Amino acid sequence: MIHLREEGWKEVKAGSVFRIELDTKADPQTLESLEVGRAVDNSYVAHLGGPEGVGDKLWSEAKRRGWTRAAETQVVADGAVWIWNLVADHFYDSVQVVDWYHAKSHLAHAAQLLYGEATPGMQRWLSVQATHLFQGQAEGIAQTLREVAGQHPAQESELLSEAGYFETHKRRMEYLDRRLEGWILGSGMVESAAKQYRARFKGPGMQWSRMGAKRLLPVRTAILSHRFDEIWQRINNPPLN
């Protein structure tokens, strides 16, 4: 969120394009060697405005990075409906994954509704269900929440809402299979980018004109993507007619 003069707080939408590299790590429980996917060579886009704008920019950056030549591709994001609508428009044939940490936060909210905040019962239920979720059993979690919702009338509506979340995204929460295939489970690269944009645009007392923010966003994006010098050279040395 950035503060625009005469408009108030407005959302900047950000996205990242990356290459997946496999890294060998030891499983913390079995100590077996596992190949884990990690995001490298990140580049970014940002847009002050509606979903369509960031979708177009993300698709343009993906094509520049060689998306259409990749044998396999992935999209990882939170559960927002507008994001998956954009995925259906631009990245419909990609592997789709709901960010693990967003999914677990919904599970934690359900645990809190059932047992109260930070109680031993909440922690035990969350630990068991998080293991099920990590094994790709989102549909079973949805069923569990539907079954217990009626036993908690005051929380029933919210519990059913969380059940619907896991039911809706169950095919995007097949975490065990995706992990074994080497795909990314978390959207940390975008969370990190958001912090970097925030550091530039959300300092103490900062207010922006809409045009000023729109003009500076591409500059910040080029710096974060390590492309500033390349783009600056192109702007200042246009091809001869």
Structural account:
This protein has 241 residues and is α+β, with helices and mostly antiparallel strands. It folds into two domains: 2-99 and 186-236, Nucleotidyltransferase, domain 5, CATH 3.30.420; 100-172, no CATH class. Helix content is 51%, strand content 19%. It has ten helices and six strands; from the N terminus they run ββββαβαβαααααααα. The protein has helices at 51-64, 81-90, 100-115, 120-134, 138-149, 156-168, 175-180, 188-201, 210-224, 228-236, and strands spanning 2-4, 8-10, 12-26, 33-48, 74-77, 95-98. The strands form three sheets. The protein has a two-stranded antiparallel ribbon with strand order 1-2. Strands 3-4 form a two-stranded antiparallel ribbon. The protein has a two-stranded parallel ribbon with strand order 5-6. α1 (51-64) packs across α2, α3 runs antiparallel to α6 (156-168) and α8 (188-201) packs across α9. The longest helix has 16 residues, at 100-115. The mean pLDDT is 93.
User: What is the domain total for the residues?
Assistant: 2
Using the coordinates shown, work out and report the CATH topology of the largest domain.
Nucleotidyltransferase, domain 5
Number of strands: 6
Q: Quaternary arrangement of the chains shown?
A: single chain
| Estimated radius of gyration | 21 Å
**Tally of DSSP helical segments:** 10
Task: Report the CATH architecture of the largest domain.
Answer: 2-Layer Sandwich
Structural category: alpha+beta
Strand order of the largest sheet: 1-2
Query: Could you estimate the helical fraction of the residues in percent?
Result: 40-55%
CATH class annotation of the largest domain: Alpha Beta
